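Our consortium's second objective concerns turning raw sequence data into structural hypotheses that experimental partners can test. To show how far this objective has progressed, the report includes one record in full. It was chosen at random from the queue rather than selected for favorable results. The single chain below, 220 residues long, was entered without modification.
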Amino acid sequence: MESNSLSSFVGILRESLLIFLKNKRLMVSIALLILLLQSFLVLCNFFSIMPLTQDFLMKQTELLFASPGSSQYTDIVASMTSYFRKFAGLEWFFILALFMASVFSSAITILASAVTYAEANLSFRDLLSRVFKSCKRPITTWFYISLFNLGYIFLELSFILPFSVNFSSPLFRPTTFAYVLLIPVSAFQMYLSVFWKMSLVISVLEEKVVLKHLGRLRRY
């Protein structure tokens, strides 16, 4: 039984690698698009916050030589606060942009793999059109996955921290109990993440309600 499961797993991995060789042109185009999109956002983030960071450091240096309580000191603090708000706003914007780019990259990769596996003829332009039309489902699914992940991390910390403190002894530090408990909890989180990622695949390929994608995995 175990040998059959292992051979099936190896067969799935081998077949998934062959998918990328069936339509090299499409896969290379998608890889370049994802690479260019992610690189563009990272470079835009870097060059947009660089002037703010330099101005903030300059004001921080000026603050060391200003006397507290003076008008110059107040103006410098106000300028640093303004720079920090602009920095936080830009970072939130690029975090959202990178999130959308990540969802788009996952959706187009999943759809391209499915099209290649089914040996269907679909151009790169038609593939982009289908991804944009169905982008609402993977975004919503990814949002639920993020909520479930944050909820699990919160439950993980609320369970490990009190348990490690209350059951500590002179022979074992609280951090030792935390590390011991963290191993099975993290392993179970990895197990759940597989099903959560499968729900993202289903949300891209099928037009169902998002919560049904997550509930449908119970049969597996």
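The partners drew two points from this record. Residues 37 and 43 are 10 Å apart (CA to CA). The first helix runs from residue 2 to 22. Both points have been shared with the crystallography group to help prioritize constructs.
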